[in-house]
Amino acid sequence: MTQEQKATPEEVVQSFQDAFSQNISETRIERHTTGVKKTEFVHIWMRVNRNVFKDAVKHLFQFDEYPHFAVSSGYDIEDSIDLIYHFSIYHGSRDKELSINIKVSLPKSDPTLETITDLIPGALISEQEKQEMLGVRITNIPKDKRVFINDDIPKDVYPWRRDETGPQKYIKNLHEVKQ
Amino acid sequence: MSQTIKTTFQLPIGPIHPALKEPVAFEFEIDGEQIVDVSVALGHVHRAIEWAGQRRNPIQVLYLAERICGICSYCHPMAFALAVERIADIEVPEHAQYLRVIHGEIERMCSHILWAGVAAHEIGFDSVLFLTWELREKLLDLTEYLTGNRVTKGISMIGGVRRDITPDMYPKIQETLQVLKDHFEKLRRIFLEDKTFKMRSKGCGILTKENALKLVAVGPTTRASGVKKDVRLDQSYFAYGDLDFDYVTPDVLTGEVNGDVYDRIIVRLLEVKQSISLIEQCLEKMPPGPIVSEPKMAKLLAKLKKAEGEAIGRMEAPRGEVFHYVKMNANEHVYAWKVRAPTYSNIMPWVPMLKGQQIADIPIVAASTDPCMSCTNRVIVIENNKTLTLGKEELHQRSIQKTRRLQA
Predict the structure, then answer these.
(1) Which of A12, A157, B213, B287 could make an S-S bridge to B94, C-beta 3.0–4.6 Å?
(2) Which site among B50, B207, B236, B293 would you substitute to test the A interface, given the most A Cβ atoms closer than 10 Å to its Cβ?
(3) pLDDT reported for residue B6
(4) Same domain, B316 and B299
């Protein structure tokens, strides 16, 4: 399943930098230890430009035949929406797994990103969730339906947004409601 | 002679039951008793926990995270704490890391044994349900003894845990583990050798290794399909790196991997045994030291207020990998928080598992990934424009009838 030769975190980052040079930034390798034996584990972070995002995900397949996709998270920050796709490679051998987090910024004026469900079908629910929570548009998504939010909620309200499209006017604090 | 046209029917199942943390609605396309296609809809009781968390400080979020799930009430706050500790650069004392393993493994045993009872109930073996839940009761008593609570444990803290386990408490832990060991053989015989259990679980709800990998299944669901994936081993956290254990896949016991319900039973049973051994190893190797890095809450909060950055917290919950992403902006509140419970990843694999099965197998196949099967609360069968409503009870009866038919 996993290839015999496992790349080190530095080699993984280097390989991404070689492949995407200008389009990749903020790479960082986080090393931590745990337990009495100080077992080490590694989290890799990187930011890629939107135009190479899909290729960056494809690039992961060079290291592991089936990179594991955990979930994508995201947040609204000023004029853009940041999405972070959390992957891991090399599971199945003790303490060798590397977490790889790929961040991509989408401008609010055009928050579109291509789907990765053709590469990893299990990413569907995550992508649907990002569409309804953050108002991003995933192109070519196989199932364009809401999963978590009820259909009764207006289409232009996105719960995780911090701007005027956020859910503010729908929130009622109990202590503010006059009895 | 008029020509008969064979059509399929739609069978919606779900979505709401109060016991379920993530209510789910299925829409089955059925041809007689056979399931042809399935589609899954989620989120009928989305509680906006992540949104609420973004308006609280990290310590308050711990208690909120504890309430995400009643069974994984330890994994969620701990995965969140792991992420926050990485952002704020908090070193967890070694003693606390061992205590964290013990609580995690007790929770795993509670969950797996509870699941075994539910699985037995789904195929109509209620006496086994009572046997397993009696054992679980012993574990709940132990949880109460160690944490002061039975379900929502309130033991987690950023930088450690809130209560110590001292050597004078070891006998009680060992006594409970002994009870489990004594009953293990009995459980193994019932679940793995009983003829009826085998008939209902073998070759039922198959998830191939390839599908498990592609649909990113996690936990016992994916391990039963032969995928070696366990966060405890893949990427050590707490003190798991110090302990001696290995991946549990069904071939350890039977020498083959089928990825069916039977294999998922094997994996969970063996993991109970593994958890007992892990707790024993922890008690043996327990290093001395403090239980939390910063006991003064005000000081800890002041430190967290200055913390800036982002991190992930991963942990192997009973049902699979729990994943938390946290971003903090040197502010009182958490800036962004994403929670991914294991069921989130185990929903998509339901589709290949359920295709080709019979209606009577829905309860055991869906239950085999360990969601709460209560979503079968409301079933409507539409037959030739005539609506026929089946309750959970009736669906359960169909499952029992199949067991009886097979026994006859």
Answers:
(1) B287
(2) B236
(3) 73
(4) yes
Give the max Cα distance, chain B. 86
Contact residues on chain B for A96, CB-CB shorter than 8 A: 234
- Pairing state of beta strands B160-161 and B156-157? antiparallel
Are the beta carbons of B242 and A39 separated by less than 8 Å? Answer: yes
Containing structural domain, residue B372? 9-45+357-407
pLDDT for the residue numbered B373: 32
Yes or no: say if B103 and B164 are a contact pair by the CB < 8 Å rule.
no
Q: Which CATH architecture has domain A9-176?
A: 2-Layer Sandwich (3.30)
- The model's pTM: 0.89
Structural domain spans, chain A: 9-176
Sheet with strand A24-34: strands edge to edge: A24-34, A39-48, A98-107, A80-89, A68-77
Angle between helices B75-88 and B58-66 (to 10 degrees): 160
Q: Is B214 on the interface with A (CB under 8 A)?
A: yes
Closest partner CB to A41 (pick from B214, B236, B287): B236
Same domain flag for B393 and B263: no
Question: Of A18-27, B214-223, B394-403, which range is least confident?
Answer: B394-403
Structure confidence at residue B378 (pLDDT): 26
For residue B140, is it within any domain?
yes
User: Which of B285, B338, B347, B350 is the best substitution to test chain A (most A C-beta atoms within 10 A)?
Assistant: B338
ipTM field? 0.92
- Give per-residue pLDDT as tens, B313-323: 999 999 899 99
